[in-house]
Design the sequence.
């Protein structure tokens, strides 16, 4: 008997008796002998809780977390501070252990959370309809491509090179299934999506155009111009966005974007080496019956009390089967809960204050580093620079407990000496100045040098 | 206080929970840093609320959820087994929780080793040597499976257009088929509850790319003809896909790879006890055979000597299914689970899951229950079984929905209802291995009591539930006039 089961010998006898079986073995008679394993699994024997804890703790100790270094690594996930109340609330069994709310009468907590989450995402994106979460950012982009296919019946998708490389990759992977071609459109010399090239890339067979705000390099795109260029031939405009800069940036929905999707990790979720986090998916009203995933709606019970249900379920796989608008079932409810709690914690003013702090620190950091900027225009949260001796910088920085950022060459061979530097509220001026020292910036490049040594 | 006020309605101008850190850089006006056209004109209407009230709001909401730590949750095909508490502790260790996904592998050796070990364990359990942990949930794993099938067939120069799914399949299967660009062809069910092999033989032509199968299937029955099915599918040049939603029945007893399956997905949030979170997160790793391996997603975790790293150089790969390398936090929990149970414990899981299901099936077969809720395809089941509410509907005038709603008043979660589709008024019951005999006895007593009560007064069940925070909700109205976000009342 393992510690998670509870059948005593007495139970076993009584249960087999009730079943009318002589042994446990009898219950597996339907499995042909020829496909039985006939041996033990080649795995270690079970271990005590304490031993498993020690083993997992030893593995964890071999990772260098953002507690142990000053990291400027971003490129899609960011080292934000997660308030303690999120840990407290998410660890409640009432949120942690229910299934998807198929029985609304005993799931009003989870359903109301979804409704509140949808409201918050709607506010951020400026679009009236949000679902209750999808898996994460890049697959949300791919889901947007599928919606565009269902909506337009066209066969081509156009993606800016400013879209996260993982989003472009996931889009291509999924599009190979649903039968669409993905075409990339370039960035200009200053790291903006080139609106003329974009206008040239769309044609009558283009179902959707994908841009990102801010883009992968941190550039604040001229979204209005991209919408105009992208929708020239009737294609849908999909904007991937980081939700935190949306505190200060014009909501994509106000600029004519049809769908706004993205990665929600920055909203109160841990880094977790890449997941689980959540994806969000917001849309113009006219796509409400083509959305993927769960949507909570407000209604009344038979006594007239306010309540919430999963709604528009005829879009979904368990009802609609092969005609469903997407195959998603389990999504990211717990992570989306973290998202709405985080946004409520920040509040209306705090959200703006955080966004402004990021904006100022990003610009401060770009100046302080004193390096050639790949994207010299407006940036928020992230920026790209050319580093003459990138390997040397990494060597010096790692020795000093600093992770200088993301090497762009992995995804952008044209920026072989490129470094993408990310800033959060956890990266103080002192941290930024330390990085500046490491890249060898003259002290004059910094507003107020602190003299922190290597 | 238990009310339905949203967090937005609790907002009062001037309250706050968040205090920003010091602005230690020059306070340059936003207008100097961003072009005018890019600046938000009106702040997002987020609530203004103090920390104590914020904590109370969500604590109050949580109290309206029924949850697994509270009581019996026999949702068929969902495998609502106990979530060991150790897993939350190890997942929260900073070395796991605060590890950036793009950390240099040199500084992420523990995480990579954990993934590599989990890949190995899942491969051994499935009987298939190659594993990708990347897919985000079961349906994402299904999609990966069909994209792998497409890549494999195209590599052989074949263009096939159809995918077979039994009429007992989960809804995700046919939805996945469409998303992967294939046409669904349904297979019938034989009298014993398995695949209709004659129907399969007739439909397994050279235009078929894959058969997606759940085994044991959604009736809780192991398909005794699995070897013949595999032969027919392979002779037709198609792949055989294993929907791992029901893997909990066969761990350490029989392996999909040995049954002839080419590709398997695992639901770590079912079999491997990632807490379900009210609708996620999950993870849907896949395992496959040698001939499918070249097409697995990037990156793959590999061992080079003593070190672990990512293999990105996979020219025939289908590419990436999502960002980074998957839901690592879920991997930590499932790996801890496998370590805790080991080879003996995993087999115990499946044996007790099957024992519990058959015991409950025996209780449900007793007079007073089976008269109204006869067991569909009544033979020894695996980890779950299905009863039909047809008798209760015809003789007592209460439908399956009414029985389910009345269970809510008895503090047990109802089974999955109205699925699988081929059983009239279906209730699909999966107790899992972590329930004791007393819990199963209690559930049968609840069912009996509901049926007894309905003999006297069916209206009690028809108007149930009576004791929950809200009663039956107007779902039709919600869909007709969707209100999907809160808005301030118009002046």
Sequence:
């Amino acid at each position: 008997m393992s510690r998670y089961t509870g059948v005593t010998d007495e139970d076993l006898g009584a249960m087999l008796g009730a079943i009318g079986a002589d042994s446990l073995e009898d219950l597996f008679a339907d499995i042909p002998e020829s496909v039985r394993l006939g041996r033990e699994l080649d795995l270690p024997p079970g271990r005590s809780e304490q031993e498993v804890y020690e083993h997992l703790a030893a593995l964890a100790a071999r990772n260098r977390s953002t507690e142990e270094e000053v990291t400027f690594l971003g490129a899609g996930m960011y080292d934000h501070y997660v308030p303690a109340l999120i840990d407290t609330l998410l660890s409640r069994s009432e949120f942690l252990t229910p299934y998807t709310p198929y029985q609304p009468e005993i799931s009003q907590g989870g359903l109301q959370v979804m409704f509140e989450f949808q409201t918050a995402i709607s506010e951020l994106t400026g679009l009236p309809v949000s679902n209750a979460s999808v898996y994460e950012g890049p697959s949300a982009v791919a889901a947007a491509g599928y919606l565009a296919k269902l909506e337009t019946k066209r066969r081509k998708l156009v993606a800016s090179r400013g879209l996260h490389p993982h989003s472009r990759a996931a889009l291509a992977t999924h599009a190979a299934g649903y039968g669409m071609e993905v075409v990339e459109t370039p960035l200009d010399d200053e790291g903006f999506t080139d609106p003329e090239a974009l206008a040239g890339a769309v044609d009558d067979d283009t179902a959707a155009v994908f841009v990102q705000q801010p883009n992968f390099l941190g550039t604040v795109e001229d979204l209005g111009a991209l919408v105009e260029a992208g929708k020239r031939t009737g294609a849908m405009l999909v904007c991937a966005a980081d939700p935190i800069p949306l505190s200060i940036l014009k909501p994509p929905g106000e600029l004519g974007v049809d769908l706004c999707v993205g990665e929600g990790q920055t909203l109160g979720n841990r880094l977790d080496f890449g997941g689980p986090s959540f994806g969000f998916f917001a849309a113009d009203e006219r796509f409400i019956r083509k959305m993927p995933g769960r949507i909570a709606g407000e209604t009344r019970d038979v006594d007239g009390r306010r309540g919430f249900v999963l709604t528009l379920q005829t879009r979904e796989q368990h009802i609609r089967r092969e005609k469903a608008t997407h195959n998603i079932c389990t999504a990211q409810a717990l992570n989306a809960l973290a998202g709405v709690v985080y946004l409520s914690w920040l509040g209306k003013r705090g959200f703006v204050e955080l966004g402004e702090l990021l904006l100022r620190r990003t610009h401060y950091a770009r100046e302080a580093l004193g390096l050639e900027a790949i994207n010299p225009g407006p940036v928020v949260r992230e920026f790209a620079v050319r580093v003459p001796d990138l390997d040397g910088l990494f060597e010096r920085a790692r020795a000093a407990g600093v992770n200088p950022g993301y090497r762009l060459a992995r995804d952008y061979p044209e920026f072989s000496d490129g470094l993408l530097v990310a800033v959060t509220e956890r990266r103080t001026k002192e941290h930024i100045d330390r990085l500046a020292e490491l890249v060898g910036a003259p002290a004059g490049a910094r507003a107020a040098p602190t003299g922190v040594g290597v | 206080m238990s009310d339905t006020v949203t967090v937005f309605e609790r907002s009062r101008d001037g309250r706050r929970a968040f205090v920003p850190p010091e602005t230690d850089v020059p306070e340059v006006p936003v207008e100097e840093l961003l072009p005018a056209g890019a600046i938000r004109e009106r702040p997002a209407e987020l609530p203004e609320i103090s920390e104590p009230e914020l904590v109370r709001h969500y604590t109050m909401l949580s109290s309206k959820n029924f949850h697994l730590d509270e009581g019996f949750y026999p949702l068929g095909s969902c495998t609502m087994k106990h979530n060991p508490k150790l897993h939350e502790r190890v997942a929260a260790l900073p070395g796991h929780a605060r590890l950036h996904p793009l950390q240099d592998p040199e500084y992420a050796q523990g995480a990579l080793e954990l993934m590599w070990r989990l890949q190995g364990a899942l491969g051994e359990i499935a009987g298939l040597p190659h594993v990708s942990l990347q897919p985000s949930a079961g349906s994402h794993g299904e999609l990966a499976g069909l994209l792998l099938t497409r890549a494999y067939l195209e590599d052989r120069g074949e263009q096939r257009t159809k995918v077979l799914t039994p009429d007992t399949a989960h809804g995700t299967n046919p939805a996945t088929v469409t998303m992967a660009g294939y046409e669904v062809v349904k297979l019938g069910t034989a009298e014993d509850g398995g695949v209709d092999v004659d129907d399969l033989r007739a439909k397994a032509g050279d235009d078929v790319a894959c058969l997606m199968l759940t085994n044991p299937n959604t009736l809780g029955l192991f398909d005794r003809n699995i070897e013949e099915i595999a032969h027919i599918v392979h002779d037709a040049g198609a792949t055989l896909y294993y929907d791992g939603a029901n893997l909990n029945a066969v761990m350490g007893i029989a392996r999909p790879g040995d049954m002839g399956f080419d590709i398997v997905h695992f639901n770590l949030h079912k079999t491997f006890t990632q807490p379900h979170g009210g609708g996620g997160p999950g993870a849907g790793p896949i395992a496959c055979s040698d001939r499918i391996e070249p097409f697995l997603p990037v990156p793959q975790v590999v061992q080079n000597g003593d070190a672990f790293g990512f293999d990105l150089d996979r020219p025939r790969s289908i590419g990436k299914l999502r960002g980074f390398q998957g839901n690592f936090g879920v991997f930590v929990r499932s790996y801890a689970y496998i370590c805790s149970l080991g080879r003996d414990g995993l087999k115990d899981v499946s044996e007790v899951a099957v024992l519990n299901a058959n015991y409950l099936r025996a209780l449900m077969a007793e007079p007073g229950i089976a008269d109204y809720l006869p067991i569909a395809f009544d033979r020894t089941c695996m980890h779950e079984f299905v009863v039909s509410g047809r008798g209760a509907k015809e003789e007592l005038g209460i439908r399956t929905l009414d029985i389910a709603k009345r269970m809510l008043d008895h503090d047990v979660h109802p089974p999955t209802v109205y699925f699988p589709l081929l059983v009239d008024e279906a209730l699909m019951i999966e107790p899992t291995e972590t329930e004791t005999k007393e819990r199963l006895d209690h559930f049968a007593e609840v069912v009996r009591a509901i049926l007894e009560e309905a003999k006297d007064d069916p209206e009690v069940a028809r108007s149930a539930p009576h004791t929950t925070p809200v009663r039956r909700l107007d779902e039709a109205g919600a869909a007709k006039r969707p209100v999907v976000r809160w808005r301030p009342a118009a002046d």
